[in-house]
Automatic annotation (TrEMBL):
<keyword id="KW-0132">Cell division</keyword>
<keyword id="KW-0235">DNA replication</keyword>
<protein>
    <recommendedName>
        <fullName>ORC1-type DNA replication protein</fullName>
    </recommendedName>
</protein>
<dbReference type="InterPro" id="IPR041664">
    <property type="entry name" value="AAA_16"/>
</dbReference>
<dbReference type="InterPro" id="IPR027417">
    <property type="entry name" value="P-loop_NTPase"/>
</dbReference>
<keyword id="KW-0175">Coiled coil</keyword>
<keyword id="KW-0067">ATP-binding</keyword>
<feature type="binding site">
    <location>
        <begin position="122"/>
        <end position="126"/>
    </location>
    <ligand>
        <name>ATP</name>
    </ligand>
</feature>
<feature type="coiled-coil region">
    <location>
        <begin position="175"/>
        <end position="227"/>
    </location>
</feature>
<feature type="region of interest" description="Disordered">
    <location>
        <begin position="1"/>
        <end position="60"/>
    </location>
</feature>
<dbReference type="Pfam" id="PF22703">
    <property type="entry name" value="Cdc6_lid"/>
</dbReference>
<dbReference type="GO" id="GO:0051301">
    <property type="term" value="P:cell division"/>
</dbReference>
<feature type="domain" description="AAA+ ATPase">
    <location>
        <begin position="110"/>
        <end position="320"/>
    </location>
</feature>
<dbReference type="InterPro" id="IPR003593">
    <property type="entry name" value="AAA+_ATPase"/>
</dbReference>
<feature type="binding site">
    <location>
        <position position="319"/>
    </location>
    <ligand>
        <name>ATP</name>
    </ligand>
</feature>
<dbReference type="GO" id="GO:0005524">
    <property type="term" value="F:ATP binding"/>
</dbReference>
<keyword id="KW-0547">Nucleotide-binding</keyword>
């Protein structure tokens, strides 16, 4: 939701100011005159008379009521995960460890590769970005060529895409360096053509040598070719990246966030190539900083990659409730207006997030959502009830996202369970779900899986927290799973029906009846 604006921000109030009022009463008067008035005359007559008529009501738009309340937020952006704060409470030790490793880059040497581990919301990415920004700032201060490049491997999850994105970043940076260099040399050239002594303080012996250098730089720039996001052989992409990185002297830190997603999708070829680059580079040096939620992802790496990549490891433990409270308080001081939070809001947000394995991201989402709900209520303070409502809303949003991204077969199984629950069936068993599932598949022309596979899909839904599947004994009749929904029925059904294949089913009642079929 967009931040509210106070009256001073919302623009002039046109309802009572004659300068802004357009009335229909004067239109009627003009229409009764013997001559048809010019349109401009009508407008200016209306502005001059100041009559308002019913324009008060007519001028009120969709957002007017929403803009009447006082804003609660001062700067909402500081509560978003993408924000990198100037200070990270309770992460000083990890930040100092990173800085100790990376400081060698400022001496022109290659820093050790770093692997950062920790659960979601433990400050890994924020801390790494903070250290990286400090590193680049300090490198400019001491005029040491040092760069950090960030790649989110959850989005850029193949070797081709990672190398292409990195290659294009360095190609663009090299082009900027060449442009600056040419501009400087052309300035010297223009002065040297008038006075040859201008070359004495330079590395060039003659005007011809200077012109040759400018021509060579322009040729280098022309040789740069951006890598398309598809279509090239991987070897060619790697070669372009290699040449772009090694174009001039610099130390490069490549930050691979969610590095486990890259390994999961594309294997360890990318990491192998990046970790072995330094033996071939002539001008530059490359270091890798990997960030992962999975402490065991290196178990699947080639031993050679594992040994070269995991030179330094830093673990980020979960936050406890008191640490989360400090983090929230620091952000809230910037995010909200003075007395916008009641005393119990931050402790409650911290307590909820502490239950979620110390997830600071969850705590910030709760606080931001609670503030948005308070603004919608047009109250001037965030209360405990707003936090509890935010907790329910975030949980529902999570469920919606999980259900929306389920594979089609899992959606059909879940839809079968929903149909049974909506029709009052209790203690749903696997056989009933399978009977409805089978008929739904036939209706939408989907492949019918075996009952054993459907049972596995139910177990997966159970692991995701979408259903609750309990194994119960039926005595001599064996064991079965009793299944019930763990998520809101209406909202989940709506998400499933937004899938075009399931949405095409007009009448579901025959499928519910199918639970009695053998």
């Amino acid at each position: 939701m967009t931040d509210s604006l106070d009256d001073s921000d919302a623009g002039p109030d046109t309802s009572e100011d004659p300068e802004y009022s357009l009335s229909s009463d004067d239109d009627t008067t003009d229409a009764q005159s013997s001559q048809t008035p010019d349109l401009d005359d009508v407008v200016f007559d209306n502005l001059d008379t100041g009559s308002t008529g019913d324009s008060d009501e007519a001028s009120r738009g969709l957002f007017d009521d929403l803009l009447e309340g006082e804003p609660i937020f001062e700067n909402k952006e500081v509560l978003r995960p993408s924000y990198t704060p100037h200070k990270l409470p309770h992460r000083e030790e990890q930040i100092n460890n990173m800085a100790t490793i990376l400081v060698t880059a400022l001496r022109g040497d290659t820093p050790s590769n770093i692997l950062i581990y920790g659960k979601t919301g433990t400050g890994k990415t924020a801390s790494a970005k903070f250290v990286s920004e400090e590193l680049e700032t300090t490198s400019q201060k001491y005029e040491v060529p040092c760069e950090v490049e960030y790649i989110n491997c959850e989005v850029t999850d193949t070797q081709y895409r990672v190398l292409a994105q990195l290659a294009n970043k360095f190609i663009n940076k090299n082009a900027d360096v060449i442009d600056d260099r040419i501009e400087t040399l052309e300035d010297v050239l223009s002065r040297a053509r008038e006075d040859a002594t201008e070359l004495e303080a330079t590395e060039f012996e003659s005007v011809d040598a200077l012109e040759s250098e400018i021509d060579a730089l322009e040729a280098d720039k022309d040789d740069f070719e951006e890598v398309p996001m598809t279509g090239w052989p991987t070897d060619r992409v790697y070669s372009s990246f290699f040449d772009a990185v090694d174009y001039h002297e610099r130390v490069v830190v490549i930050m691979l966030d969610e590095i486990d997603k890259l390994v999961e999708k594309s294997g360890d070829d990318t990491l192998y190539n990046l970790s072995r680059m330094n033996s071939e580079l002539e001008n530059s040096r490359v270091s890798i900083m990997g960030i992962s939620n999975d402490l065991k992802f290196t178990d699947f790496l080639d031993p050679r990659v594992k040994s070269s990549l995991g030179e330094e490891e830093i673990v980020f433990p979960p936050y406890d409730a008191n640490q989360l409270r400090d983090i929230l308080q620091a952000r809230a001081d910037v995010a909200f207006k003075g007395s916008a939070l009641s005393d119990d809001v931050i402790p409650l947000c911290a307590a909820f997030a502490a239950q979620e394995h110390g997830d600071a991201r969850r705590a910030l989402d709760l606080l931001r959502t609670a503030g948005e709900l308070a603004e919608r209520d047009q109250t001037d303070q965030v209360e405990e009830d707003h936090v509890r409502q935010a907790q329910e809303k975030i949980e529902l949003d999570r469920v919606v996202e999980v259900v929306r991204t389920l594979p089609t077969q899992s959606k059909i199984v879940l839809f079968a369970i929903i149909l049974l629950e909506k029709n009052g069936v209790r203690n749903i068993n696997t056989g009933e779900v399978f009977n409805i599932y089978k008929n739904l598949c036939e209706e939408i022309d989907a492949d019918v899986l075996t009952q054993r596979r459907v049972t596995d899909l139910i177990s997966e839904l159970d692991m995701l927290g979408i259903v609750n599947a309990v194994v119960v004994s039926k005595g001599r009749y064996g064991r079965t799973k009793e299944i019930s929904l763990s998520v809101p029925t209406e909202e989940t059904e709506a998400v499933l029906l937004s899938d075009s294949r399931l949405g095409d089913i007009d009448d579901v009642q025959p499928f519910v009846q199918a639970r009695f079929d053998n």
